[in-house]
């Protein structure tokens, strides 16, 4: 258990105590430790861009005002050196000398400044005798006094610290700054690609009176104003489909979903999701679109269709992607045929449980898993974990996909695909169920599963059924995790792709 530092001087870590004393001295002397603003004229990046090739010893005569966080500091005699860094990682040397700022200001620099402080430096742009682009100061001031020391630069922060203190991670690691910018570039490219395809972006409710659109446990809350229980949405699907009913034939949303489930290297309780719906399309059309979106994002946001993974290997996203069907691929892996429910010779629940026991797959006894869920669990165990290159897995059990249209020619399965990339599910797509009568029957079946103990089963949504009864055109829909797309493109775990993932607080007392 890690306790928060005490406010008592005798228990405060030495570095924090010294820095706080410096802050107090600055304020007592009538100077600012945290000024309201500073007269910065250029960013460090602008200075770098404006003076790319100065010869060693050059004095430009150009006066600038720059600011940055000190990440290197060397105070020596009458000449001090500091490396300043700004938000994008650009660095620039500042030189504070006796001749430039005077004896009193130089003494204040040595007394007040620590690694991690943000300082403002005004002076001439020069190239030092060693050829280092620099600002030779004629004045400086504190822009923000840091009361906590930065981590040791050569000692790598562990993952837990990086996640809990992402702000420090961003200061210290170029990789952290890069993934934050890559995430924004990926979302911008997705929006651009969908806009080019005439999709309209909308926003749908985060707080919902019923949880639906996916098989997951919700977070619940209560509205004092309306005196009703509400749920954080697990998916926007049922509202986006209302848009299609209303005539928005191509619609999408990029936003947060919330699922009250486990957290691991591929799952987060709060995550970003892209969902799209297109009238008059099938799951074949949406599979093509998702492949094109992923490839366009990889090419334009990452710069290649073969992104480099952390181990140095290349991951190939180019060309067409393989497809395989769930039941035939599972049958091949097991060495015996698995027949979908609804057929005369269907594989029974008892038979599936026996197979699971034989292959070492543990099935929760209190969940009431039916045929479809057992098939999916077996497929993931026998096939899904072994997939490496991009693969579309098609034609899922009816039971586990209550919002999906039944297959046109195969009994017992629905027109659904999941896209697996690097061994995990990246996206899913359907030919949507648009018959309100069958949809009601599917919801009733889900209610039975819930009664049997399935806490991820969907609830019957009368308002959604009412919307469907006005007539919903043939539609295809897709969902893709933004965090997982970043994982696919970078090889990182999900907590590294989310700027501030949920973590359990450290007890403080």
Automatic annotation (TrEMBL):
Gene3D superfamilies cross-referenced by the UniProt entry: Bira Bifunctional Protein, Domain 2 (3.30.930.10), Nucleic acid-binding proteins (2.40.50.140)
Coiled-coil regions listed: none
Enzyme class: ligase
Binding sites annotated in the UniProt record for Mg(2+) 1: 418, 425
One BP term from GO: lysyl-tRNA aminoacylation
Cofactor note: Binds 3 Mg(2+) ions per subunit.
Keywords associated with the record: Aminoacyl-tRNA synthetase, ATP-binding, Cytoplasm, Ligase, Magnesium, Metal-binding, Nucleotide-binding, Protein biosynthesis
Residues engaged in binding Mg(2+) 2: 425
Protein family according to the UniProt entry: Belongs to the class-II aminoacyl-tRNA synthetase family.
Quaternary assembly: Homodimer.
Protein name: Lysine--tRNA ligase
Organism of this sequence: Gordonia desulfuricans
């Amino acid at each position: 258990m890690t306790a928060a530092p005490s406010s008592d001087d005798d228990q405060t870590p030495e570095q924090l105590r010294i820095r706080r004393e410096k802050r107090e001295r600055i304020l007592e002397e009538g100077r600012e430790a945290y000024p309201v603003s500073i007269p910065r004229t250029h960013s460090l990046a602008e200075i770098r861009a404006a003076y790319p090739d100065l010869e060693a010893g050059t004095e430009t005569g150009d006066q600038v005002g720059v600011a940055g966080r000190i990440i290197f500091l060397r105070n020596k005699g009458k000449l001090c050196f500091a490396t300043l860094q700004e938000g994008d990682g650009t660095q620039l040397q500042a030189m504070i000398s006796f001749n430039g700022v005077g004896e009193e200001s130089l003494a204040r620099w040595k007394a007040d400044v620590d690694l991690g402080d943000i300082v403002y430096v005004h002076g001439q742009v020069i190239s030092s005798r060693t050829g280092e682009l620099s600002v030779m100061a004629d004045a400086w001031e504190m822009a923000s006094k840091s009361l906590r020391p930065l981590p040791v630069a050569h000692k790598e922060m562990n993952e837990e610290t990086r996640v809990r203190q992402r702000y420090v991670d961003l200061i210290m690691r170029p990789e952290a700054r890069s993934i934050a910018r890559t995430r924004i570039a990926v979302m911008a490219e997705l929006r651009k690609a969908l806009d080019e395809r005439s999709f309209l972006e909308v926003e749908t409710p985060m707080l919902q009176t019923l949880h639906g659109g996916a098989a997951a446990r919700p977070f619940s809350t209560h509205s004092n104003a309306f005196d009703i229980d509400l749920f954080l949405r697990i998916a926007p699907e049922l509202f986006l489909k209302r848009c299609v009913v209303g005539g928005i034939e191509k619609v999408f949303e990029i936003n947060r979903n919330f699922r009250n489930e486990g957290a691991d290297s591929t799952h987060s309780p709060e995550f970003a999701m892209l969902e799209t719906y297109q009238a008059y399309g099938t799951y074949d059309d949406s599979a093509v679109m998702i492949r094109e979106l992923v490839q366009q994002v990889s090419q334009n946001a990452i710069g290649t269709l073969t992104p480099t993974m952390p181990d140095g290997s290349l991951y190939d996203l180019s060309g067409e992607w393989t497809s395989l069907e769930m039941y035939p691929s599972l049958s091949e892996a097991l060495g015996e045929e698995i027949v979908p429910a609804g057929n005369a010779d269907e594989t029974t629940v008892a038979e599936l449980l026996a197979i699971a026991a034989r292959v070492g797959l543990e099935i929760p006894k209190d969940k009431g898993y039916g045929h479809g869920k057992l098939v999916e669990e077996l497929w993931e165990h026998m096939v899904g974990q072994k997939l490496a290159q991009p693969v579309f897995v098609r034609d899922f059990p009816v039971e586990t996909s209550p919002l999906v249209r039944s297959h046109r020619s195969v009994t017992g399965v629905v027109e659904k695909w999941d896209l697996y990339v690097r061994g995990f599910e990246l996206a899913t797509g359907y030919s949507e169920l648009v018959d309100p009568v069958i949809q009601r029957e599917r919801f009733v079946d889900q209610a039975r599963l819930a009664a049997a103990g399935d806490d991820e089963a969907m609830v019957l949504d009368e308002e959604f059924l009412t919307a469907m009864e006005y007539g919903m055109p043939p539609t295809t829909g897709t969902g893709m995790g933004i965090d997982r797309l970043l994982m696919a493109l970078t090889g990182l775990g999900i907590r590294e792709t989310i700027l501030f993932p949920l973590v359990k607080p450290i007890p403080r007392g």
